[in-house]
Amino acid sequence: MSTLSRADTSLLGRWWWTVDRWTLAAIGMLIGFGYVMMLAASPAVAERIHVARDSFILKQVVFLAAAGCVVVVVSLLSPKGVRRVALVGCVIALLLTALTLVAGTEIKGARRWVSLPGMSLQPSEFLKPCFAVVAAWLLAEGQRETTRMRRMAWPALAVVIAGLIGVLLRAQPDMGMMAVIMGVFFIQLFLNGLNLFVAGGLLGLFGVGGVAAYYTISHVRSRVDRFLDPSSGDNWQVMRAQEAFGAGGLLGRGPGEGHVKDLIPDAHADFIFAVAGEEFGMIICLLILGVFAFIVLRALLRLLHERDHYVVLATAGLASGFGLQAFVNMASTLRLIPTKGMTLPFISYGGSSALAVAVGIGMLLALTRRRHNGDLL
Length: 377
Hints:
- With about 375 residues, the chain is mostly helical.
- The protein has 13 helices and three strands.
- The chain has a three-stranded antiparallel beta sheet, covered by helices on one side.
- Strand 1 (about 105) and strand 2 (about 110-115) form a beta hairpin.
């Protein structure tokens, strides 16, 4: 790539000189961390469930390689191309998410997955990036209208789609995914100029929805109760994760020397951050946190001089969704929030997560590419 000349007008040449190469490098670092953490955590998990020691590693190699290709391919798109892909992706993801309710695979009391050869697909993962772009387009179209009724119609359609997504995710149930998607949508509404009183009302509705979820969904109530009062239920996995961070200290026990991966069933997925903390220490954990923060902040800073409202809203939605997912995983592992089964982007095991996050990051890179005069493509 470094041998490409600025005079190269090929598709690849134009992409290389206009894409945000710093963000691309940061994504490469996360994928590298993902490979290392699978080597550290997955063999013990595989042995515990009596499958080949390298089964998770080999699958994740394929998932992450495919994710890297998806990032590059999607980042080649124009903003209009991103919108088209998001529209098609949102429709397909909605249909497949609805399909999980009648023909999905049930795991731990939730129907979120569709079985495919070699993997289970979680369609709602793809709703996060696709709906963020679709919502941005609808809100931006509303800003372009000249009559009040038509200006309200476009955002209203976005709200209807968000409501449909909420109903489907409540039925699965997947309250964590719903919270992230609705949180991203609220951020986009706020950036679109949402009245502060209306914003306060929506936050109040979110609060009411959270209280309703607490009283109507048993596993939500159980997780909140255990978070507020550890003695009220089983906190064994979270306690082992906290002990792992303490045992790792500043520099960690060393690669392969950790014990938490032998104890926690989802050490290669939901609790991968605890494995990193025990084996590689606080410095590597802070580095991982810093890479996530760098990607989000750099995406937002590149919008300071952007004039296209759709690009601003879409990029802000994609960046905030990426950051929120990482925050939920790390914060729940550290017991800063109630536990939630959400993967750490590009680092946790999971094909659906890796590919969906890759689609979102590819869209983000496509939207923040720059022309030679400095404007975004």
